[in-house]
């Protein structure tokens, strides 16, 4: 038993990029199981952080450079320039969910909701548990005034990570928008 505990701690200490793909998948599966059972928002946030870290480490340095450049450009209000960098990242890593999500964010900020939704679908086809994509999908639906869609996407987020930050507040707000004030 003690040997198993030591092995688990070593596995968690390894950077995700140093793990074999099957070891990364096994760790992610364990983390998602723990995420569903997280007793508090703080515990959930810690597990979410580790999951995001593993996802981030799956990108090559060149792809991460392009993603960071795209995010920087987007934060400076240059969505078109950001899209160029994110398109380049997808050429290098067409199966990398984070690249699809970042491009979805750039498209969302440009007002290209249909393109953003297509990119989120591409993200989720590569990793159905990619809860940041579902969170973004909920925000896109909200921006379109599609409260039922926003609620449906948020409920999927909560299936994966029920203790995500401000989860219940957002759920209640969306339910009020869909069902009225009396819910």
TrEMBL record:
Record key words, sorted: Signal
Kindly give the InterPro entries that the UniProt entry links to this protein.
Answer: TPR-like_helical_dom_sf, TPR_rpt
Q: Which residues form the signal peptide?
A: 1-18
Taxonomic classification: Bacteria, Pseudomonadati, Pseudomonadota, Alphaproteobacteria, Acetobacterales
Q: Name one Pfam family in it.
A: TPR_9
Q: What is this protein called?
A: Tetratricopeptide repeat protein
């Amino acid at each position: 038993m003690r040997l198993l505990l030591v092995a688990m701690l070593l596995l968690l200490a390894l950077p995700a990029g140093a793990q074999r793909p099957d070891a990364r998948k096994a760790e992610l599966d364990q983390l998602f199981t723990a995420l569903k059972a997280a007793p508090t928002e703080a515990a959930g946030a810690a597990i979410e952080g580790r999951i995001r870290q593993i996802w981030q480490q799956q990108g090559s340095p060149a792809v991460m450079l392009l993603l960071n450049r795209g995010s920087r450009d987007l934060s400076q209000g240059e969505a078109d320039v950001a899209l160029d960098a994110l398109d380049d990242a997808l050429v290098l890593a067409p199966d990398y969910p984070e690249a699809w999500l970042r491009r979805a964010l750039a498209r969302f900020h440009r007002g290209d909701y249909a393109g953003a939704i297509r990119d989120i679908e591409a993200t989720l086809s590569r990793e159905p548990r990619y809860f940041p994509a579902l969170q973004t999908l909920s925000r896109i639906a909200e921006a379109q005034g599609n409260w039922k869609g926003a609620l449906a996407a948020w409920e999927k987020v909560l299936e994966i990570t029920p203790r995500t930050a401000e989860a219940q507040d957002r759920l209640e707000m969306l339910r009020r928008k869909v069902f009225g004030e009396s819910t």
